[in-house]
Fold this sequence. Notes:
mainly alpha
Amino acid sequence: MGRLARATPHSRSIQDSHAQFQLLKEIAHSSMVKSKSSDGKGMIRSVMARLTDMEYFIPTGVGGIQHVATGKWSWLYDVMSFIRSHEDLPDVTVSDDQIGLL
């Protein structure tokens, strides 16, 4: 099984950071997620629900607040790595905050 992800701790840190909140808003209101929420908690819930629908997460626990990452994340990272190496794209450093969101 993959890593356990919980939305609650991340919603507080995202709402405390204007830059992170704007990125969440952009993702949540994208054509992929189509969230109508305006608050951080609702947008995170919408993103997590969409990623669950796409089988990147499997819900665990009660109320859908905990999810386990699936192997699709590994596949996605492999595809991105392949594209980066074949398109001569620069390496991007992943921060600890980004890892924590997975």
